[in-house]
């Protein structure tokens, strides 16, 4: 999974609050979430508390005054390197602190309320199953729901994963990527706003 922050945007605060800079985090070239510097600083401080300062990559420091466009660009580059380094670290990148931060940010960015929904999942034999999940369910939760629907034994679940695919005009599918622990499958597939994208269960 490739993390990048290719762009920033100026956004208005809630209820007419002051404007702020949002950093758009992309995963494999697709927008995953928009976050503020203060949110990423909070993530950094939580990781430092749990794992110690020596484990963490450098984080761009706070500034007392508003940033110039050049400083915003510099911070964007530094935050991008930070997110890439954290994700690539076996300990930090797999931590629940990091993954839950990204799941919350994804749900907030797409403004999806937590509610029960029916999610269609394709099987490798072309059949479809509908599972009742929460919009806030992470990948592992959805995988377990599909396995339960299929009466798949617990000891076999680990051999399967959920994948995002795109349906071609001829009815075949192209592989997009494996769904990860830092995302919400329902939000990931619906945020693409195209019926071409599906979730499939496969080994």
UniProtKB/TrEMBL annotation:
GO MF annotation: an example: phosphatidylinositol binding
Localization (cell): Early endosome; Endomembrane system
Domain Ras-associating: 115-203
Superkingdom of source: Eukaryota
GO terms under biological process: endocytic recycling; intracellular protein transport; signal transduction
Domain (PX) ranges: 1-109
Keywords, in A-Z order: Endosome, Lipid-binding, Membrane
CDD domains xrefs: FERM_F1_SNX17, PX_SNX17_31
Pfam families assigned to the protein according to its UniProt record, in alphabetical order: PX, SNX17-27-31_F1_FERM
Ranges where the FERM domain occurs: 117-203
Membrane association type: Peripheral membrane protein
Subunit structure: Monomer. Interacts with APP (via cytoplasmic YXNPXY motif). Interacts with KIF1B. Interacts with the C-termini of P-selectin, PTC, LDLR, VLDLR, LRP1 and LRP8. Interacts with KRIT1 (via N-terminus). Interacts with HRAS. Interacts with ITGB1 and ITGB5 (via NPxY motif). Interacts with CCDC22 and CCDC93; the interaction associates SNX17 with the CCC complex. Interacts (via C-terminus) with VPS26C and VPS35L; the interactions are direct and associate SNX17 with the retriever complex.
PANTHER family in alphabetical order: SORTING NEXIN 17 AND 27, SORTING NEXIN-17
Name of the protein this chain belongs to: Sorting nexin-17
């Amino acid at each position: 999974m490739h993390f990048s922050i290719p762009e920033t945007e100026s956004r208005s605060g809630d209820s007419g609050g002051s404007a702020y800079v949002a950093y758009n985090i992309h995963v494999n070239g697709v927008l995953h979430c928009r976050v503020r510097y203060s949110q990423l600083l909070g993530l950094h401080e939580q990781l430092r508390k749990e794992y110690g300062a020596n484990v963490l990559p450098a984080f761009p420091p706070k500034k007392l005054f508003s940033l110039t466009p050049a400083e915003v660009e510099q911070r964007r580059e530094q935050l991008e390197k930070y997110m890439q380094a954290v994700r690539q670290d076996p300990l930090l990148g797999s931590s629940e602190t990091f993954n839950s931060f990204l799941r919350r940010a994804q749900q907030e960015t797409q403004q999806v309320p937590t509610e029960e929904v029916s999610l269609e999942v394709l099987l490798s034999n072309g059949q479809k199953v509908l599972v009742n999940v929460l919009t806030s369910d992470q990948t592992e939760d959805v995988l377990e729901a599909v396995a339960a629907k299929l009466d798949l034994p617990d000891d076999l679940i680990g051999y399967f994963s959920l994948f995002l695919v795109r349906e071609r005009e001829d009815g075949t599918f192209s592989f997009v990527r494996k769904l990860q622990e830092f995302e919400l499958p329902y939000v990931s597939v619906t945020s693409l706003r195209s019926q071409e994208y599906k979730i499939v269960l496969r080994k």
